[in-house]
Amino acid sequence: MIQSNEFTAAYFEQHNFLSEKDREKLLEMAQIVTYPMNKIVLHRGEQISQVGIILKGLIRVYDKNNKTVWLAYENQPYGSMEILGLHRPSTVTYETLEETTMFLLNYTELENAIIKYPNIGRLLLMYWKNTAMSIYGHFYSFLTLTPEERYLQLLQQNSRLILRVKSKDLATYLGMHPVSLSRLKKRYFIHNK
């Protein structure tokens, strides 16, 4: 079992609605897992039963054409809404771009715990909402912003991410050609150092 102070200090302290019993139950179910860089943690076509929080590291999610559809990093949820919500195999692959440490929980155990621990349900709902809103925001940016505007938005919101992801992967995430991304980096990022 994980040490209570280690787990709660890393993430759950900020959720003051969790009682001591809620925290104990989460700790009982949780495990800390560290994956090496470039490790595929979920292959396309597989199913998983785990969800979690990325404590440290970066995960790239990409489709069958190797296009980056999502980047998950510190304090973000890990898990496939497609698998957990629709009960079908993943259509994307999850790969660590850096050594990645996560708090993992079995999703079925988590759902079952909701009956006796309703605040865990509240926490789970919060994660689902945050994940859905992040996905919606990224999708909506493709409808309303140019690739350059998406780059500038990322530069403003999380400029470190630009340095952590390979240019070809970042370019597909932003919906542009790697050469265009290189030009934008030179124009905005390098000159603003």
Automatic annotation (TrEMBL):
The keyword Kinase applies. It comes from the Bacteria. Residues 18-114 form the Cyclic nucleotide-binding domain. Keywords: Kinase, Transferase. Signal peptide: none annotated. InterPro entries: cNMP-bd_dom, cNMP-bd_dom_sf, RmlC-like_jellyroll. One of its GO terms (molecular function) is kinase activity. Coiled coil: none annotated. The keyword Cell wall biogenesis/degradation does not apply. This is cAMP-binding domain of CRP or a regulatory subunit of cAMP-dependent protein kinases. It comes from Chryseobacterium culicis.
